[in-house]
């Protein structure tokens, strides 16, 4: 995947974004937005609807109206005059040069599909600015390397500009909201914020296990982060008292009760080698963080395989003591049709 910066490609990508939003949310209306920093209030074309059962609103500025960038604003509330975005993603004005000072950009993959991405800079929680290192740590499972002109850069995919963009963008907004809330509660203290977002230091991996369970960057697909974020949101609603959803840079999600995990979730985006990696990872994670009754679960997007493939994979994993969960948006079911709330580790 590469960052696009030629004027014709950037304009085409932004045009495609507007077309995609009209198809998903209908025609835009002009709404007044207010946002922090050096940006000024403005009336922008705004689309509003729902995503995963909650309000979602997005606005896009006109190219050339702002000096250096075209703003894309995301909010998780119904549209109203003077609303403030959860996150502002800026696409540099296309002049044939790469501008890494602006916090966002458009990318194109090998299939010619455009992506809206964020570089992880300038996350503001007044009066604090979240460091780029902390943002990238929070979005570790989203990050992917892209061709950034004469170098490679890690970026956070907000979503592919195709059908389904709204669901991906809303998951990104939710993940930003979690980061900002935690940062505000910690009053900008990096150590406090990162401890709250992850686990305590005594749950860190030994280096040897980190190396043996790490996957190549080449295996990454952009669907991983949104699937992880949506599952986290659903688990938080279903968990009994005394439990909490946790994660760190290796474990995608876990259900923590006391000092050990009752369940460990490993998110993948396809079959084949990813399933074999998941089996090894989950067994290592259970030995390190779990107990004899810890449940192990592989999580896949529903569109990753056919019903027959899901059944065959689910039956194979079941023989190994591992569950298979399929998800689309915030709807998750086991390979044989059971709802997430029916699973024993949520009781």
Protein described:
The chain has 347 residues and is α+β, with helices and mostly antiparallel strands. It folds into 2 domains: 2-185, no CATH class; 199-346, Restriction Endonuclease (3-Layer(aba) Sandwich), CATH 3.40.91. 31% of the residues lie in helices and 29% in strands. The chain has 8 helices and 18 strands. A 6-stranded mixed beta sheet has the order 13-14-15-16-17-18, sandwiched between helices. Strand 16, helix 8 and strand 17 (322-328) form a beta-alpha-beta unit. Helix 3 (165-185) crosses helix 4 and helix 3 (165-185) crosses helix 6 (224-238). The longest helix has 21 residues, at 165-185. It is globular and about 60 Å long. The protein starts with a strand and ends in a 13-residue tail after the last strand. Residues 199-220 have low confidence and may be disordered.
Q: Quickly count the helices.
A: 8
**What count of structural domains?**
2
Shape: globular
For the largest beta sheet, what order do the strands appear in spatially? 13-14-15-16-17-18
State the major sheet: 6 strands, mixed
Rg computed from alpha carbons, rounded to a whole number of angstroms = 20 Å
Secondary-structure element string: EHEEEEEEEEEHEEHHHHEEEHEHEE
Low-confidence stretches: 199-220
Which structural class should the secondary elements be placed in? alpha+beta
Nearest-integer average pLDDT: 84
The fraction of residues in strands falls at: 25-35%
User: What share of the residues lie within helices?
Assistant: 25-40%
- The rounded distance between the terminal residues' Cα atoms is 43 Å
Overall strand count: 18
């Amino acid at each position: 995947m590469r960052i696009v910066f030629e004027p014709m490609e950037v304009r085409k990508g932004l045009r495609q974004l507007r077309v995609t939003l009209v198809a998903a949310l209908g025609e835009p209306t002009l709404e007044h937005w207010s946002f922090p920093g050096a940006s000024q209030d403005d009336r922008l074309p705004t689309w509003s609807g729902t995503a995963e059962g909650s309000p979602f609103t997005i606005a896009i500025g006109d190219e050339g109206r702002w000096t250096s960038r075209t703003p894309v604003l995301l909010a998780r509330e119904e549209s109203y005059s003077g609303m403030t975005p959860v996150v502002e993603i800026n696409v540099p004005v296309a002049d044939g040069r790469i501008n890494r000072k602006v916090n966002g950009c458009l990318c194109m993959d090998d299939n010619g599909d455009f992506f809206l991405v964020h570089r992880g800079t300038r996350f503001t929680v007044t009066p604090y600015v979240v460091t780029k290192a902390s943002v990238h740590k929070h979005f570790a499972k989203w990050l992917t390397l892209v061709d950034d002109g004469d170098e490679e850069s890690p970026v956070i995919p907000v979503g592919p500009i195709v059908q389904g963009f709204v669901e991906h963008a809303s998951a990104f907004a939710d993940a930003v909201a979690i980061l900002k809330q935690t940062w505000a509660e910690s009053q900008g203290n990096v150590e406090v914020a990162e401890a709250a977002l992850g686990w305590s230091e005594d749950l860190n991996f030994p280096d040897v296990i980190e190396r043996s369970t790490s996957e190549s960057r080449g295996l990454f697909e952009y669907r991983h982060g949104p699937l992880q974020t949506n599952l986290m949101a659903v688990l938080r609603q279903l968990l009994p008292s005394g439990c909490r959803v946790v994660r760190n840079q290796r474990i995608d999600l876990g259900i923590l009760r006391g000092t050990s995990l009752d369940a460990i979730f490993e998110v993948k985006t396809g079959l084949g080698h990813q399933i074999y990696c998941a089996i090894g990872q989950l067994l290592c994670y259970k030995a390190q963080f779990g107990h004899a009754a810890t449940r192990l679960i592989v999580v896949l997007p529903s569109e990753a395989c056919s019903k027959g493939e899901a059944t065959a994979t689910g039956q194979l994993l079941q023989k190994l003591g591992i569950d298979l969960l399929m998800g689309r948006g915030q709807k998750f079911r086991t390979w044989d049709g059971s709802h997430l709330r029916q699973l024993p580790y949520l009781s």
